[in-house]
């Protein structure tokens, strides 16, 4: 029987609650400690969970019985904890995105490879049953030659979502806004199904929120397979609409909305046999509304990889793909040029 995998967490914001709940729900996992600069939060953690807390990450990483560091800091503050964890010989799980630009991601990937530790990034929406079915339908050729992919993430966030936080919507802390933090899950799904993008033409703007990053962005992409794609992402569309991923081919079309297949028309119909999802996978109006099940599924997968010395599905090389796409989107908007990848 494998020993329990022990976890430490750096950062104690809202997403850390998801990580704590996942670890507590999995028999093969144990929460060992949490690092937070905030003394009040450390006292709260100690009282609520009865575990060790640390002000400095290096002190927590010195624990000999610590196996994994979960990075729950803001987007642009993932690199330094990852480098420290790799140096200490700890595996790394980071919330999406991996980091805010390809250069910082590449440093994380290199450090973990050199230290022979696993690096994985949370993209729990890859485990939605409806998405997995969509992916199988495309992979099995039921749509025929792929023609077009549409991603639409027209969500809404109250102005207070940004105003009451010192990093959301900032270029240093968030790396942008609506695309890199909200739309990223569905861009990751798009790349996972359609394959690599070869060119991007995009425009991003800030039209509603008082932030540095974009609250609306659109892009036209061309895939290596010759298909075209469109991207819409926003946190300014009142009152928030369900996200969609649409795939169209010569022999059929399939539409995923809020994690569920809502339309599938095939020239040669098949039985979909869809598995129901517990709770919601959408955060179109409430960033805390997402169910925990998918996080647990990915955590279980990563734990199995650690125990059996395997690479996780979403390792560093997978997680950087969407960052390269986002980097091209931002560069295209900034320069007014088509960016070739």
TrEMBL record:
Keyword hit for Amino-acid biosynthesis: no
UniProt EC number: 1.1.1.18
Stretches assigned to the Gfo/Idh/MocA-like oxidoreductase C-terminal domain: 135-339
Record-linked Pfam families: GFO_IDH_MocA, GFO_IDH_MocA_C
Gene Ontology MF term list: inositol 2-dehydrogenase (NAD+) activity; nucleotide binding
EC main group: oxidoreductase
InterPro entries registered for this protein in UniProt: Gfo/Idh/MocA-like_OxRdtase_C (IPR004104), Gfo/Idh/MocA-like_OxRdtase_N (IPR000683), Gfo/Idh/MocA_Oxidoreductase (IPR052515), NAD(P)-bd_dom_sf (IPR036291)
Domain Gfo/Idh/MocA-like oxidoreductase N-terminal: 6-121
UniProt xrefs under SUPFAM superfamilies: Glyceraldehyde-3-phosphate dehydrogenase-like, C-terminal domain (SSF55347), NAD(P)-binding Rossmann-fold domains (SSF51735)
Keywords: Oxidoreductase
Keyword Oxidoreductase among record annotations: yes
Protein name per Swiss-Prot or TrEMBL: Myo-inositol 2-dehydrogenase
Species of the source: Jejuia pallidilutea
Taxonomic lineage of the native organism: Bacteria, Pseudomonadati, Bacteroidota, Flavobacteriia, Flavobacteriales
């Amino acid at each position: 029987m494998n020993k329990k995998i022990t976890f430490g967490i750096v950062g104690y914001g809202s997403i850390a609650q998801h990580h704590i709940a996942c670890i507590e729900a999995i028999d093969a996992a144990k929460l060992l400690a949490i690092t937070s600069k905030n003394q009040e939060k450390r006292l709260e953690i100690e009282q609520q969970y009865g575990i060790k807390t640390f002000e400095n990450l290096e002190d927590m990483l010195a624990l000999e019985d610590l196996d994994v560091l979960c990075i729950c800091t803001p987007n642009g503050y993932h690199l330094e904890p990852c480098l420290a964890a790799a140096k200490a010989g700890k595996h790394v799980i980071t919330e999406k995105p991996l980091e805010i630009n390809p250069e910082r991601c590449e440093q994380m990937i290199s450090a973990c490879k050199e230290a022979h530790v696993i690096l994985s990034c949370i993209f729990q929406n890859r485990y939605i049953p409806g998405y997995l079915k969509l992916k199988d339908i495309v992979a099995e050729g039921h749509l025929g030659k792929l023609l077009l992919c549409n991603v639409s993430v027209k969500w809404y966030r109250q102005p207070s979502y940004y105003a009451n936080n010192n990093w959301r919507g900032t270029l240093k802390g968030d790396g942008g806004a609506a695309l890199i933090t909200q739309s990223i899950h569905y861009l990751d799904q798009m790349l996972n199904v359609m394959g690599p993008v070869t060119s991007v033409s995009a425009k991003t703007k800030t039209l509603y929120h008082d932030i540095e990053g974009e609250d609306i962005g659109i892009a036209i992409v061309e895939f290596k397979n010759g298909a075209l794609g469109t991207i819409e992402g926003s946190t300014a569309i009142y009152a928030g609409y369900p996200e969609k991923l649409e795939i169209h081919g010569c022999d059929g079309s399939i539409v995923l909305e809020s994690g569920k297949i809502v339309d599938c028309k095939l020239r040669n119909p098949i039985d979909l046999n869809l598995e129901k999802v517990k709770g919601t996978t959408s955060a179109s109006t409430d960033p805390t509304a997402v169910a925990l099940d998918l996080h647990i599924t990915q955590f279980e997968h990563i734990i199995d990889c650690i125990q059996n010395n395997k690479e996780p599905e979403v390792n560093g090389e997978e997680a950087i793909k969407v960052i390269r796409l986002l980097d091209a989107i931002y560069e295209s908007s900034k320069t007014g040029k088509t960016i070739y990848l």
